[in-house]
Amino acid sequence: MKLRALAVLLPLAVLLAGCFTSEEPLLAAADADFPFERIVYAAEDGSTSTLVRQGDGYVAPDDTSVTVLLQSFGEGLYFVQLAGVDETGEPQALYAVAIDADGEIHLYRMLAQPQDLAEGGVPRCEGEIEEVDFGCLTDPAQLVNVVRAAIAAGEPPDAVLTVVELE
Q1: What is d(CA 161, CA 152) in angstroms, rounded to the nearest whole number?
Q2: Per-residue pLDDT tens digits for 59-75
Q3: In sequence order, what are the beta bridge partners of 40?
């Protein structure tokens, strides 16, 4: 079963500084894939987290303010969307790519890299903080293509999670 990587991003979302975002969330539940009902995963520091399917997405049982959606791009590669609302009630979304790797979830591009923007095909968001690189996505394939190029260049994942339980 693929797409375990979605669960990885919730605890890491607070660490996203310069990241990939969009004007509106790119995925709707109708476009998403739901390869599991529940996943427990361990971060590199040994801490564990859980994601469960609830309604039209995945949530952490103790915090349903962020919904995770996954979209498969084949070969165990998933576009991951974390969506919620900000303090003003406006929709917000952050993105990464997860790869199902035999009991591990490899996360890529939790942070935008300077080479991803413009030359990598992802425009920089207008009006964002100048010192931080925010990539403005209009299509999930933009980030998937960036990650495929990074993997081809031998770049390691940003984080590796270990799948503890999967239902």
Answers
A1: 21
A2: 999 888 899 999 999 99
A3: 50, 165
Predicted confidence (pLDDT) at residue 8 exceeds the cutoff of 50: no
Q: Please report the DSSP string for 56-103 in residue order.
A: TEEEETTEEEEEEEEEE-STTEEEEEEEEE-TTS-EEEEEEEEEE-SS
Residue 138, both tokens: 């209009």
Spell out the residues 6+ positions from residue 147 whose beta carbon is closer than 8 angstroms to its own.
77, 97, 108, 109
In-domain check, residue 1: no
- Find the domain containing 102 and state its range: 6-166
By CB atoms closer than 10 A (0-12, 13-18, 19+), residue 96 is buried
Confidence of residue 137 (pLDDT cuts 50, 70, 90): very high
Residue 111 lies in a domain: yes
140 token code pair: 């999930």
Sign, CA dihedral 55-91-8-26, equals positive
Given phi > 0 = left and psi -120 to 50 = alpha, else beta, which region is 46? Answer: left
Residue 58 domain-assigned (yes or no): yes
